[in-house]
Please model this.
Amino acid sequence: MHDTIHPVPADWSQSARVDAAAYEAMYRRSVEDPNGFWAEQAERLDWIKPFTKVKNTSFAPGAVSVKWFEDGVLNASANCLDRHLATRGDKVAIIWEGDDPSESRSITYRELHAEVNRFANVLKKLGVAKGDRVTIYLPMIPEAAMAMLACARIGAIHSIVFGGFSPDSLAGRIGDCHSKVVITADEGLRGGKKVPLKHNTDTALTKTIGDEKVLVIRRTGSEVAMHAGRDYWYHEIAATVSDVCEPEPMNAEDPLFILYTSGSTGRPKGVLHTTGGYLLHAALTHEIVFDIREDDVFWCTADVGWVTGHSYIVYGPLANGTTVVMFEGIPNYPTNARFWQVVDKHKVTIFHTAPTAIRALMQAGDEPVKSSSRASLRLLGSVGEPINPEAWEWYYRVVGENRCPIVDTWWQTETGGVLITPLPGATPLKPGSASWPFFGVQPAIVDADGKIIEGACEGNLVILDSWPGQMRTVYGDHDRFEQTYFSTYKNMYFTGDGCRRDADGYYWITGRVDDVINVSGHRMGTAEVESALVSHTKVSEAAVVGYPHDIKGQGIYAYVTLMHGVSPSEDLRKELKNWVRAEIGPIATPDLLQFAPGLPKTRSGKIMRRILRKIAEDEFGALGDISTLSDPAVVDDLIANRQNRK
Ligand code: WTA
Model:
């Protein structure tokens, strides 16, 4: 079978920031002379004290260390705000589009600067100082970006927890980094439904040390409980402080933020990013991958609770002085035409979303798309999970009317910014492939023995050398950082992804090869869902796997063994699904739950997930060798009662 190829449109190869020749030359230079290349690129940032050293990194076993620009001093918020005031003070920084289509708001760079200064002073008044951790648990309102930049301004380390996470998940993340302040809102608003953020925060704080303060932003105006001495209204303190706060000089390697993400073990990891390298990588990739121009209106539909929101709603675009759209709502509220109405309303030129949203909208048909003009669009983006060629083609043909290139950007919370991606003026597009490495990125594919394989091949994706946006450590647990990413293959960063490379050197990400599943572009550790299930008194054992899901990419399939004497029932199935929902959050709710009297185990007691995956996929004809199971008969029962029948 031949892959479809969409050549680079002539106008793009002429006008884009980087054409094919420039890509080749710049890529070669970036890997042959990383110090020279990145020193030059780093000039795009404003440094309080220039760096003299560029790259100082090692992936060596037992001595993994990542430092970039280590003697440079800068401030991320000053780079996103102050330096634009002279030339872009009256330019719109954030166009906020509310959940309700009648609500929107524009904030200029000058206004955003003043608000962030004020916010920084509010944090100071609550006792927050350089190095302190601040948890942000907010809906998609401008204050979320302001809170991030206010932390950056005073050198506090923000840790955003997605507003869809439960009180328990929130409590774990507040506790792990021992946050001094939690910033939340009375309620969030999504798809016309209220999300009780303050109430969730109250519940979470019954499970933490209890010395945290809470800063509450008024969003819906609903009544919420306020605990004297602990809870403060943002608007009340804001009225008492000035809107001038000098940015704190930060070393390039001072932490900027922590973001918790799922891995193959139970507890989420606090991925730590620092100031200089991260900001440079976010800003440079944003400009080059999306070919950013001064008058672009850039809309990334992610939530700031995920890394995509950090890098491509806040830090990258604002460092570049771009106008961004920030959207509070969801793709299908009030109708399936919402995205395209917002595109028309704000004249969006670059639209960046996740394959799960594209697939859902594709299912709703072409009509809602065609009811809009979309004439302002010039470039489309995809991120978060592999995009199937059918969804890619629909996005290209129907949304972009065969006019807009699609950049399919592969990266991870750990990588800080995009690592593998087409560039719209340089890369012929193959639907479903993230294509080629970005500057400075050296991907390789290894076989089961960890040997690098060349040419067209398939195996596991590793990165051979550091890039500026790489995570520096797992917060408070450097051993776990080394163990997770550098112990599987020596001297290489292991991504956790499987990958194929074709004869043209295009990379095709095939999905996670560890116990992480990708549900609607959200990372979920199967171990997290399992531990939520076994914490229910009626559950004795649980195993969770992913299975192919038309809209979500992967769905969550749970096998549950009940305690002795407990009988399975539809009510219990519902109860257990709701239990996980309440323990972790709605995104973790199992799609399918099968009661299993026994799980397939080896004689040494290890659950054979390979078999569970096959049955979940409804591919039980190909179970392979099951003779090593301690009780092969359990497999017959699993097959007979499987929940996914195609
Ligand atoms: C997957 C999101 C295929 C991948 C930015 C990765 C992708 C995980 C793509 C990271 C893509 C992300 N094509 N797969 N374009 N982008 N992934 O940390 O499995 O939430 O390891 O970062 O998402 O998810 P994370």
Summary: The chain has a mean pLDDT of 96.
